[in-house]
Write a structure and sequence with these properties.
heterodimer, A: about 450 residues, alpha/beta, Rossmann fold, 7-stranded mixed sheet, 5-stranded parallel sheet, 19 strands, B: mainly alpha, 7 strands, about 5% strand
């Protein structure tokens, strides 16, 4: 019976994956095949852009979920049922994210959705998940200031990435002057607001902070790199904290290399540059520039080595790299599987209640835990870029850091906490003991 | 205990001198202990080892530390043996200097972090002040200029007396001035002379040095320093205007390069070609394929990869252009809305096709050695890749101009676009000319892709980021006029770069768009409008 069932599912799955490339056609077919698929599968929605600007980052995450589902099915699925992926392509188009999310939940009846990359896309699907009461796992580091009942944040909150990175530069590199450079949208703006408040609380003066925003896909960095060089030549140790996102990073790093800005003079620490982004650059001139993440491919643990091997075998590419948001999906997926098994159901309310407290092994040798605010505990690593495009870990947190939904550095949010277990509230004000306020 | 003393690099040159002067042989055991520390894989141990080795006076010190800097120092954590691999592949034992057959597989390169890299640079600076290579001496003197470490003074003085190279002599004099300026017991006359030397250097670092001077100086020196600071500041302000102009030219050349193909397909033929950006992208991917082939089969030819990619990109993109013209666009002449939609759809198809073939992630296109790095011209930094792109753009523009003006095909193209029916009655095969013109425009876009692959991402989205700018340049410059495109591109580039420092990158771009909208209101046909009956046709 079971073998017959897998035979039924396998062909449409692979066919769909092949077709995902010709997006439009695939959608129609996906709807068709899922409609006819048997009822005794559990459907998992994958909401990642496979075309448009964000395809560069998100396609890998789609492959990751398909890989994890494949592995889980080899182990016999969940609750005795096989998992079945439903892949849609929101095409880097933010309103389309909401439409596709609605389609996944109402038409395809998925039990859970893994998806989104940019904060705008997450904000766009939020009302849909609330209205239809479903579950979203969001795998990317983000600006915080949010805790929703239907969303589980497996990426880093600012206190799990940005603040430890700044601390490292302040203590180990004795940095006194700061350039906060970012792409002009919500994540860099909020992160820089938090960092600015944090730096000032540590006694950094206004004139020692330079903030610079650039449009998406900015490619002419001559002026800005020259400005950074000038800002950094006053004799005080200077560092750049970069929240530059996506495509703009490659020309930025190329310009840094060409203008001779070396990491020993002005180190750049980035929050959006991982193994995948470096795959497109010659990294020799970037030796020693930094990145802060919760995972690096180069970390040597048995779990990580096993994962990389299985992933490269699955993608049939021995050079395929892994990165931090992928690990977030690995953790999130395992947590979801455990929560479903604990709740003995895929019903959204039961799984949401089961998730806080669930633990899952991360790939760097620790165990991450889902917290009542729907964020998870993660280790923080600072890595330096090596000549081979990988990172060399130069610093890490002693244990795991718990993700704060609300930043302690900002006036508007320092009294807020998210607690979906005791208080049943995403923005509980500990001062006034009331639910509500900012973010509601 | 001894290592603790040596950890501070301030004592390093002293120790070097001491060792040199007295000829005291350092105990061999100490040197070996220090080298052994590299195998511990701890940053603090590595730091101690560098300090001890740099001051040991051992002839192996320089090879070991420079190998460490280049990642050629291998340490075996099991046997605690340390090896230096030379760039030519040979290896020696780091403690004895004896050649070894090979480095065991369990050995890994000794890791560095930024702090250690600085320590290594400082140690090498101490070791290379007397290097036979003048470039290395200059570099060492520059690092002394930055640190203005007073203990370096005797070494600098000694080096200065022997120095014959002009550049190195200047660097040593400046380093000496920087030290004297910050030396507590230097005389006022010495300090004034130092300020004059630093003022003559006149760059950002000189300024940093002067502003870093403490407040409690004698009035004469404080006045001289303030005077020098303001002189340097005003000269730097002038240089920054020059720099903005250069950046503007460079941005203008990129805009021109991206737009020049469109100036043919849209400007001359009047096809609203939304797939123009994808032709640029195809050119960039051709470069990637050429480089991959060279990397795997003929690694020695890497520096020529771009030269080979240019004709190939022209042929590939041109052929695709002709195919598009024959299969789609020729049915849509005179129907601009349909052309717009069809070519836009086509651009999505091409993007997705490339995404399927090469994957959605960026592909690495390397810079040949002559495209990497920068040189200083006065107080501004000029990067080679930007300089070459400017030259390349002007060359492409000139060739195109000559082609249109002096070749038979150019003549036919102009004839057909000015008056199709008259040209046809003169016996010109207009549909063949249409196909060739579109192919030429697409081919030139492909060439642009080769150059742009050097400064931007090679991803399926490459073209999208240039299409708006390209239309902006062509419309602003005046449709149908190549010179207009040239002037338009450089005007926009320079305006953008002068606005950017004032308004920021985001607002600067918006301001440019607003200015263009206002300009088009006033002159709907752009900077260089075509006149005469050709316009109405």
């Amino acid at each position: 019976m079971l073998t017959r069932l897998t035979d039924d599912i396998a062909p449409p799955l692979s066919r769909r994956r092949w077709l995902a490339v010709t997006a439009g056609l695939a959608l129609g077919l996906a709807a068709l095949t899922t409609a006819k698929a048997a009822d005794d599968t559990i459907k998992v929605g994958v909401l990642h852009s496979l075309s448009g600007t964000m395809a560069i980052s998100e396609t890998t995450l789609k492959d990751t979920i398909l890989f994890l589902i494949d592995e889980q099915n080899k182990k016999g699925g969940v609750l005795g049922k096989k998992l079945e992926a439903v892949v849609v392509d929101p095409a880097s188009n933010w309103p389309l994210f909401a439409e596709k999310a609605r389609e996944l939940i109402t038409k395809d009846k998925v039990s859970v959705v893994f998806g989104c990359w940019t904060s705008v896309s997450r904000k766009s699907v939020l009302p849909v998940f609330k209205e239809l009461n479903s579950i979203l796992f969001y795998p990317v580091q983000y600006e915080g200031e949010e805790s929703e009942r239907n969303v589980f944040y497996t990426g880093a909150a600012p206190n799990q990435q940005a603040i430890p990175a700044v601390d490292y530069l302040m203590k180990d590199e004795k940095v006194k002057r700061w350039v906060l450079a970012g792409t002009d949208y919500v994540y860099p703006r909020t992160t820089n607001k938090i960092l600015e408040a944090y730096l000032k609380s540590k006694g950094v003066k206004q004139e020692d902070i330079m903030i610079n925003y650039t449009p998406f896909g900015h490619s002419d960095w001559q002026t800005i790199v020259a400005d950074i060089k000038k800002f950094g030549s006053t004799g005080k140790k200077t560092a750049v904290v970069s929240t530059i996102n996506g495509d703009a990073n490659v020309p930025f790093y190329k310009e840094l290399g060409n203008q001779g800005v070396k990491a020993t003079d002005i180190p750049v620490v980035a929050f959006s540059v991982g193994e995948e982004e470096l795959a497109g650059i010659d990294t020799k001139p970037l030796l020693g520039h930094l990145a802060a993440w919760n995972y690096f491919q180069s970390i040597k643990t048995p779990e990580n080595e096993k994962f990389i091997k299985a992933w490269q075998a699955y993608t049939k590419n021995p050079k395929r790299v892994t990165n931090d948001p992928m690990e977030a999906h690995v953790i999130g997926f395992e947590m979801w599987v455990k929560a479903v098994e604990k709740a003995k159901s895929v019903d959204a309310d039961k799984v949401i209640d089961a998730l806080p407290g669930i633990e899952a092994k991360n790939l760097t040798g620790g165990t991450s835990k889902m917290l009542p605010n729907h964020h998870i505990t993660k280790p923080v690593f600072i890595g330096e870029i090596k000549a081979n495009g990988q990172f060399d870990v130069v610093w890490k947190t002693p244990g795991l850091a718990a993700g704060d939904a609300w930043s302690k550095e900002l006036d508007g949010s320092k009294d807020l906490i998210g607690d979906w277990v005791g208080k049943k509230c995403g923005n509980y004000n500990t001062k006034t003991s009331k639910c509500g306020g900012q973010g509601s | 205990m001894l290592t603790k003393v040596f950890r501070k690099f301030r004592v390093l040159p002293f120790a070097v001198l001491l060792v040199l002067a007295t000829g005291l042989p350092v105990m061999a055991g100490l040197f070996e202990d220090a080298v052994g520390k590299f195998a511990n894989d701890e940053f603090s141990d590595t730091e101690e080892a560098i300090g001890a080795i740099a001051t040991s006076g051992n002839p192996l010190a320089y090879p070991i530390i420079s190998a460490l800097q280049d990642g050629r120092l291998m340490a075996d954590p099991d046997t605690k043996k340390v090896y230096v691999t030379e760039p030519d592949g040979k290896s020696i034992d780091a403690t004895t200097g004896a050649p070894v057959a090979g480095v065991p597989d369990s050995a890994a390169a000794v890791r560095l972090n930024n702090r250690l890299r600085r320590t290594v640079e400082a140690a090498l600076g101490g070791l290379t002040l007397l290097s036979p290579d003048p470039a290395k001496r200059i570099q060492a003197a520059q690092s002394v200029f930055k640190t203005h470490d007073a203990t370096m003074l005797p070494v600098i003085d000694g080096a200065l007396q022997k120095e014959t190279n002009k550049g190195a002599k200047l660097a040593f004099t400046e380093a000496r001035a920087a030290i004297l300026l910050f030396k507590e017991d230097a005389t006022d006359a010495e300090k004034l002379e130092a300020i004059a030397t630093i003022k003559a250097r006149g760059d950002q670092e000189a300024l940093a040095l002067l502003t870093g001077l403490s407040g409690d100086q004698p009035p004469a020196i404080a006045r001289a320093a303030a005077n020098a600071t303001s002189t340097i500041q005003s000269s730097l302000a002038m240089w920054s205007a020059v720099q903005n102009a250069w950046y503007g030219l460079s941005l203008g050349s990129v805009l021109l390069l991206a737009a020049i193909g469109l100036a043919i397909t849209f400007g001359v033929m009047g096809v609203i070609n939304m797939a123009h950006g994808e032709m640029v992208m195809i050119g960039a991917y051709v470069t990637f394929v050429v480089q991959e082939t060279i990397r795997t089969s003929f690694p020695g030819l890497f520096d020529y990869s771009l030269l080979m990619a240019v004709p190939l990109a022209f042929i590939v993109a041109g052929a695709i252009g002709i195919l598009i013209e024959r299969s789609i666009i020729r049915f849509l002449y005179g129907r601009p809305l349909e052309t717009l939609l069809a070519t836009w759809g086509l651009s999505l198809v091409l993007q997705q096709a490339v995404r399927t073939m090469f994957g959605p992630t960026n592909r690495e296109v390397g810079n040949p050695s002559w495209m990497s790095g920068a040189f200083e011209l006065g107080q501004i930094t000029i990067t080679y890749n930007r300089l070459w792109i400017l030259c390349f753009t002007l060359a492409v523009f000139a060739i195109l101009l000559v082609m249109l003006r002096y070749t038979a095909l150019g003549l036919e193209m102009r004839a057909v676009t000015q008056n199709r029916r008259m040209a046809a009655s003169m016996g010109i095969a207009t549909s063949r000319v249409d196909a060739l013109t579109f192919g030429l425009g697409s081919g030139i876009a492909g060439i642009a892709g080769v150059a742009l692959s050097q400064i931007d991402n090679v991803s399926p989205n490459l073209g999208q980021s240039y299409i708006i700018d390209s239309f902006m340049v062509v419309v602003f410059g005046g449709v149908g006029n190549l010179w207009g495109t040239l002037v338009g591109a450089f005007t926009l580039g320079i305006a953008n770069k002068f606005l950017e420092p004032v308004a920021g990158a985001v607002l600067g771009k918006i301001a440019i768009l607003v200015l263009i909208i206002l300009f088009i209101q006033k002159r709907p046909r752009g900077l260089f409008a075509l006149k005469g009956r050709a316009v109405e046709a």
